[in-house]
Design goal:
Number of domains: 2
Radius of gyration: 20 Å
Strand order of the largest sheet: 3-4-5-6
Keywords: CBS domain
CATH superfamily of the largest domain: CBS-domain
InterPro entries: CBS_dom, CBS_dom_sf, Diverse_CBS-Domain, HTH_11, UCP026546_HTH-CBS, WH-like_DNA-bd_sf, WH_DNA-bd_sf
Protein name: CBS domain-containing protein
Organism: Romboutsia lituseburensis DSM 797
Distance between the termini: 18 Å
Shape: elongated
Strand content: 15-25%
Amino acid sequence: MSIIQLNQRQLKIIDIVKANEPITSESIAAHLNVTRATLRSDLAILTMTGILDARPKVGYFYSGVSEINLMSNKIKDKKVEDIMSMPILVKKDMSIYEVIVTMFLADVGSIFIIDDDEFLCGIVSRKDLLKATIGGADINKMPIGMIMTRMPNVVTITKDEDIVLAAKKIIEHEVDSIPVIEYDKHDKTQAKAVGRMSKTNITKLFLELTDN
């Protein structure tokens, strides 16, 4: 059996839970002298793989490490490109109103913004669009480029990276989705969005593995 490689902090978390179960995330953080936010991705990985079990208002329990709850042989072979979905792209000069309509029709939580050369230059979320709308912006005239989060401040991932890394980035940065990019061969500072990795993609993967 192949076992997912855990880091030192994750191993310490397992020991703490074993000795103190049930235990809350606040207590685990206190044992390690770190913040709850610091542990968010570690706890997500440990519960996602089935090593820990989380119960609302109770805390974390140790479930054990087994071939069934890890599903490691299947997970480790999956790359981002295996489960990513198509990106929803709009030009940076499109109006905020047009982007709102596009987001509604596509039923996504975020939209990727590209420049005239079709390189990724930003991203907008539902929250960004809501802020612009209630903030009094002229959404029919103001271009989306005025309110987007600009590169290089956009969290991205490449299609050949691991699913677990994608999940960690989504959790750590508290975003709905991240662009899957492919760097330009001649200019490594530029990249095109070739896919979209979201919480839904990852959830569907685990449902698929569980059903099988």
